[in-house]
Amino acid sequence: MSWAFLRDLLSGVNKYSTGIGRIWVAVVFMFRLLVYVAAAENIWKHEHGEFECNINQPGCENVCFDHFFPISHIRLWALQLIMVSTPSLLVVFHVAYRENREKHHNQKLYKNPGKIDGGLLCTYLISLILKTGLEIVFLVLFYKLYNGFTIPRLVKCDIKPCPNTVHCYISKPTEKMIFLYFLVATSCLCIVLNLSELSYLIFKYSIKCYLKRHVKKQQ
């Protein structure tokens, strides 16, 4: 899978972000995207082939694997990375809209098209809310699908066509669990950063509105 588009998207968003937003971009790029591409993807690469059950009943191993791993951890992680980065496109599109509007009218309509104010501020806040919501949804999804953030060494399966309860063994469970904890930790860090940036922008805008009203009253 090519991650060039996501990399370019994060680079574009970085230009219009606050200081906290740039930290978020760095965390997503360095501690999530690069870790995924460089290491995590290879760990789950042959997870189906390395899933072994102590029975040769045709279909039993496939059914058990599908029951305990309805969606691969690594594919769900990839989907999470794409989904939490996509709301940032709203900001990029809004800035592009401002720039095209200036070209259409052939005059300077904004002091800086990338400055977070007015309509762009609302778009930015919406993107932060969406990113935070998606992070939480995926964390809950991980927890529900796999009954917690753990990778067991042994799972017991009694689903048909298995004739009885069989023992199935997961390959490299410790290594997979370490990366799963890393995934959860970086996701939680991104949630904290998004909430911090959201609070910062709301506070900054509130102070700005208060000062404007105060100045008007003084005049």
Spatial shape: elongated
Based on secondary structure, the structural category is mainly alpha
Rg (CA only): 23 Å
CATH class reads Mainly Alpha
Helical coverage, percent range:
55-70%
In spatial order, strands of the major sheet run 1-3-2
Q: How many β-strand runs?
A: 3
CATH level 4 superfamily = Gap junction channel protein cysteine-rich domain
Largest beta-sheet details: 3 strands, antiparallel
Helical run tally: 7
Poorly predicted segments: none
Mean pLDDT across residues: 83
Short description:
This protein is mostly helical and 219 residues long. The protein has helices at 4-14, 19-43, 60-68, 73-85, 88-105, 118-145, 173-218, and strands at residues 52-53, 154-157, 166-169. It has one domain: de novo design (two linked rop proteins) (Up-down Bundle), CATH 1.20.1440.
Please name the defining characteristics of this protein.
219 residues, mainly alpha, de novo design (two linked rop proteins), elongated, Connexin_N, Connexin_N_sf
Question: SSE layout and pairings?
Answer:
Elements: H1 4-14, H2 19-43, E1 52-53, H3 60-68, H4 73-85, H5 88-105, H6 118-145, E2 154-157, E3 166-169, H7 173-218
Antiparallel strand pairs: 1-3, 2-3
Helix pairs in contact: 1-2, 1-5, 2-4, 2-7, 4-6, 5-6, 6-7
Protein name: CXB7 protein
Transmembrane segments: 21-39, 77-97, 118-143, 178-203
Subcellular location: Cell membrane
